[in-house]
Structure to design on (594 residues):
C-alpha cells in the first residue's frame, strides 16, 4: 500500500462512516426538530472522521470486516462531536467558530447546544448496544465499558477539567502530557481498543493497538498545538494563536515549536513500528501515522 | 404488606442504593478532584432515590433478588442527577436552589457543573455494562439500549427541549402530556422496564410493568406540578410558584389544581391495579402508587 492507496482507503472508509452516521442519527425533522437539527449541524460539519476510521482500521488489522464495526465507529464520532459542542460553550472555551463555521450554540443557542451534546453522548451508547449479533455480546459489553471509561471523569472529561484549570498557569510538561493523554488521547486510544476488542484481537494484538493509539493520540494533539501557531485558517477552519492568547497548556508553550515537531515525529515513528508488528493487515494504520504527522488541518 | 411495611421496604432499599452509589462513584479525591467533588455534591443531595428503588421493585416483582439490579439502579440515578445539574444551568432553567441547597453550578461554577453532568451520564453506561455475570449479556445490552433511548433526544432530552420552547406559550394539554411523558415519564418507565428485563420478566409481565411506569410517571409529575403551587419549601426544598412565574406548561395551568389532583388519583389507582395484576411480589409497587399520590416533597 502506497500513500496514494492510503488516500483511497481513507476515502472509502470515510464514505462508509458518513453513511452509517446518517443511518444512526434520527432525521433532522424528528420531533422535536430543533435539537435534531443541531445534532446534524455539528455532526456533519466536515470532520475528518479520523476516530471512526481508526476503529475500522484497528478491527481490520486483526482480521475483521469493516461493516460490523460501524456502530462502534459511529459511537466514537458521536462522543467526539458532543465533546466539541460542550467545549465550545461560553462557560467553557467560548469559541465562535469550529471548522470554519459558527459553533453550535452560535446558531441554535446555548440551551439547545447543551442538549444536542447530551443527546449525542447518549446516542453513542444506544448505537453501540445495537451492534449486529455476529459479534458476541460479551465483547460489546467490554467495548461499552472501555468507551465509557475513556470518555468519563478519569478520561476525556478529566482532561478537559485539567485543561481549563491550567489556563494562565505556569506550563509543565507533566501537566501538558496529562491534558493531552486524557482530553484527546483517551478517546483515540479507545478507538483502537474498540476496533480490536470487537474485531476479536488476542491480548497481544490488543496491547500493540493500545500502544499505537497512545503514540498516535499524543502525536495528533501535538500537531494540533503546532497548527494553532503555524496553521492557515483556510485549512484548519480555526482562528490561529488562540491557545497562546489564552495561556493554554500546549507542547510548543512547553518545548517550543521545533522540539514539539521532533516529539511528534518520534511518536509517529513509534506508532508506525507498532503497526508493522501487527502484520500486513495493519498497513493502513502504519500509513496513518505518517498522515497525522503531515496534516495541515 | 401494610403502609408501615412499605416504609421499611423503602428504607432498606434506599440503604442498598446509597451503598451501591457510593461504591460505583469514584471517591471525591480522585484526580481531578473538583469534578468528582461536584458529582458527589449533586448525587448525595438528599434525593429520595425513587427511580433506583423502582428498578429494584420491578425486578423483585418478577422474582429477582435486588442485588444484581443495583448497577442498573445506580445508572438511572446517575442519569437523573445529570439531568437535574444540566437543567439547573443558567442557559437552561437558571435555578439557584435544588433540594434546599445551592445548585451544582452555584458551588462549582458553570463549567465544572456542565462536566460533572456529562461525567454522570457517561458513568451510567459504564456501570450498567459492569452488571454481574449472573445476568445474561443479551439482557444487559437490551437494558442499555432502552436506557439510552429513554434518556435521549426522543425521550428525556426531547421533553426538556419542548418544555423550554413551551415557556410563556399558550398551554395545551397535548403539549403538557408530551413534556411530562418525556421529561419525567420516559426515565421512570425505563426504570420499570430495566428492572423487568434484567430480572427476567416475560413479555406479558413487561407490558404490565411498562403501563405501570407510564401511569406512575405521569402521576409523579402532576403531583410535582401541584407541589410547586401548594408545597412547603421546608419539605420540597424548592422555591414555590416558580412554574407559574415562568409560564411553564403544567397540569394545574391547564386543568386547575383540583382536576389535576383527580387525574393524579386516577393514574395512581390504575398503577395500583396493574401492580396487583403482577401478583404478590409486586406489592411494594402497588403501595408505591399510593405513596406518590400522598407525597409532600
Amino acid at each position: 500500500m502506497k500513500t496514494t492507496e492510503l488516500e483511497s482507503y481513507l476515502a472509502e472508509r470515510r464514505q462508509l462512516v458518513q453513511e452509517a452516521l446518517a443511518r444512526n442519527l434520527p432525521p433532522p425533522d424528528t420531533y422535536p426538530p430543533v435539537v435534531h437539527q443541531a445534532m446534524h449541524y455539528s455532526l456533519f460539519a466536515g470532520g475528518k472522521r479520523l476516530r471512526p476510521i481508526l476503529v475500522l482500521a484497528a478491527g481490520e488489522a486483526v482480521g475483521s470486516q469493516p461493516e460490523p464495526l460501524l456502530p462502534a465507529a459511529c459511537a466514537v464520532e458521536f462522543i467526539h462531536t458532543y465533546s466539541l459542542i460542550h467545549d465550545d460553550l461560553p462557560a467553557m472555551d467560548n469559541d465562535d467558530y469550529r471548522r470554519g463555521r459558527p459553533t453550535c450554540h452560535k446558531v441554535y443557542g446555548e440551551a439547545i447546544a447543551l442538549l444536542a451534546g447530551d443527546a449525542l453522548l447518549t446516542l453513542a451508547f444506544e448505537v453501540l448496544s445495537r451492534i449486529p449479533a455476529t459479534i458476541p455480546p460479551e465483547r460489546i459489553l467490554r467495548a461499552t465499558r472501555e468507551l465509557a471509561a475513556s470518555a468519563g471523569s478519569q478520561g476525556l472529561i478529566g482532561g478537559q477539567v485539567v485543561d481549563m484549570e491550567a489556563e494562565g498557569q505556569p506550563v509543565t510538561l507533566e501537566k501538558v502530557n496529562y491534558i493531552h493523554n486524557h482530553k484527546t488521547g483517551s478517546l483515540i486510544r479507545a478507538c483502537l481498543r474498540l476496533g480490536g476488542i470487537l474485531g476479536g484481537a488476542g491480548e497481544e494484538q490488543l496491547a500493540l493497538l493500545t500502544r499505537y493509539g497512545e503514540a498516535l493520540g499524543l502525536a495528533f494533539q501535538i500537531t494540533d498545538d503546532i497548527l494553532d501557531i503555524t496553521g492557515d485558517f483556510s485549512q484548519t477552519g480555526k482562528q490561529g494563536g488562540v491557545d497562546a492568547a489564552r495561556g493554554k497548556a500546549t507542547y510548543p508553550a512547553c518545548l517550543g515549536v521545533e522540539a514539539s515537531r521532533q516529539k511528534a515525529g518520534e511518536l509517529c515513528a513509534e506508532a508506525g513500528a507498532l503497526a508493522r508488528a501487527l502484520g500486513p493487515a495493519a498497513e493502513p494504520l502504519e500509513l496513518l501515522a505518517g498522515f497525522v504527522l503531515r496534516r495541515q488541518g
Q: What stands out?
A: Chain A has a mean pLDDT of 94. The radius of gyration of chain A is 18 Å.
